[in-house]
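Fold this complex.
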Amino acid sequence: MLEIRHFSKSYGGDKKAADDVSLTVTSGDIYGFIGHNGAGKSTTIRAVVGVLDFTEGEIYIDGHSVKDEPIACKQVTAYIPDNPDLYESLTGIQYLNFIADVFGIDAAEREKRIRHYADTFEITDALGDLIGSYSHGMKQKVAIISALIHEPKLLVLDEPFVGLDPKATFTLKEIMRDMCARGAAVFFSTHVLDVAEKLCNKVAIIKHGKIIDSGTMEEITEGHSLEETFLEASNG
Amino acid sequence: MDSKSILLLKTLLLSTSPRNIYAHTTDKKKRRKIVLGYVGTAVLYAMLVAYSLITCIGLGFAGTIDVAPALCALTISALSFVFTLFKTNGYLFNFKEYDMLMSLPFEARTVASSKYLYMYLKSLPWYLCVSMAVMLGYAIIAGPGIWAYPLWILLTFFLPVIPMLAATFLGFLIAKVSSRFKKTNLIQTVLTFVFIAFSFSFRFIVEGLFRDDKIQEALAKASEATDQAAHIYAPAGWFADAITKGNVLSALLLVAVSGLLFAAVFHLLGNSYQRINSALKSRAASRNFEMSEQRRHSVVNAIAFKEFKRFTSSTIYMTNAGMGEVFAVLLGVVTLVIGFDRILDIVTREAPFDHSILQPAIPFIAYFFIGMVATTACSPSLEGKNYWIIQSLPLSMKSVYQGKMLFNLYLTVPFMTFSVLCMCVSLRVPVLDTILSLVLGVALCAFSTTWGCVCGVKHIRLDWENEVEVIKQGTAVTIYLLPNMLVTMGLTALVIFLGQHVNHGLIALGFTLIASVLALLSYRRVLSLCKA
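Structure:
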């Protein structure tokens, strides 16, 4: 579903934000991407979702090149950034309708999906309010619903659990599991290692832009906790 | 335009529509502000219509009503070019919701062209005001055929397109060049300054060319100058031809060239849009910082320094708030190099008058540029989502706004002093009068700073999507700017008149006193707003 081959990115400084990153996420995977602050997680994620221009390496989504066929890639992908910049002067429902229009979802279907996810995240009552009046967590919920509304094949999330209440966190984890059970794939960055350990079947650890370890959870941890493995790898 | 462009354009308009906020907010204060905003905008539209109509009637009295269509086209073209150049960085490039939009299945050129059309539609009412007022004046005085009116209205929609595309393309080139450097922001700001300064001086360059061709006499008349300008800027000529001669070919040419240029510019722009934005939104990290001895500042100075960093971190902020200072310095340097007398000859087309009558107006001439924008008018709103930082710190709002005012004084006083000094030296103003002019200049800076702060605090707006909304289009900036400009122009005329009858030193002293009292009153108002 997602294949990153030898991806590198430099912002003009001496150091590379991402350095020869390669990994593969297949259908049904919940793939965790972990690393220190500034390790290169967001750079890699922004390149995957077609926001960041890059010249070194290749990224494929569902067989399409992000560089050459960005629209085909974005059509099957959904992205939730760590701090979603939504249109604050739109109401929640206006924003969700905009996203549904972009993906060409018909009126009946969008109503069904919005109702379902909004009820699940307990935000239906607030959909008529301006996004500017929402708390961070509520904005995050709207961003999540907007990402799920077109039933993507690949869900890319950057620190998705930040600002979510415990129930919403649980719900999102259930949705991620459910999506993967239906053949989609999830690729997300997180600092919450406990969550990653319980949720992911695969994980990659990135340090100073380089992947220092990747594979299935069992291969990576070798019987230790993910936290121990991560600390050992990142201090090594 | 495809359906996705229309969808994005509609959403962009809706997302910045005060009407939408009004419909969905229960905050009465916010609603009242929106209504006042609409009333203020309506007043500005009315002022623009009145000014344009009076200008047109003036042309009629001068017997040169024939140039009205060309003048209208040139005015709209010049305004749309300059305003778009100021806005490309922030609207087209480096905008806040870039990540969100680019992660959706939109072509890069769809995003870019929708942003352009958004800028076009948001500024169109201003151009329509100018055009409709001139059309009305032209109708009353020249009485063209009935066919001219629909043609005029239709072509007005196309008049801003080409200059806006030219400004967009320049903005694109500036962004493209800047994106290749580590210090993208600095390069972008410098290049924008250069292009804007060039745009403003273009008129004089053109006139200089004609002077060399010995047709100075022809330019002595405003109508012929307008004709010449319309000849140089072909689209204005096409518009004038279509209206005055009923030339359908000219009308079609304007429409066709606008359409073709639109397609060409966005084809070019779309190809490198993602690369440019990626570079502009990224910051190189060298990670080589070494802790050294740190310095302690007073609270007010610390806030002023924070304001300085905020100022230099934004190309939009610097080009808008710093443009007046740059012009003031340029004016000072040019007066020293070329001479104030020569500049007056160029500006007044060698009108025979005693240049020394302008001596008492020197601080006001410098203030016309420096006082155009006060950072204090927009800096409270620019806190935006970072407002919590100053709110949660153990700071009084008084200290916060004192810091903001101090920064504006740091920014304006040196440039004011330099500019006034250069003009005084060039005009050989006596030493005592020079000193008094400098003091008056400083008092005007103090007034600009405190009055700007009153507007900025009173009309603070933190929920903006794009900083252009508060730097260029904010209520605070508009309320600061318009009376300030009108009063400056009025005072300049008044001191010139008084200067012919009263001692120049006394005039400077008198106006220093007035400016100081106004500054003090504004400062007290800021303090009372802090308590409110």
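The first strand of chain A starts at residue 2 and ends at 10.
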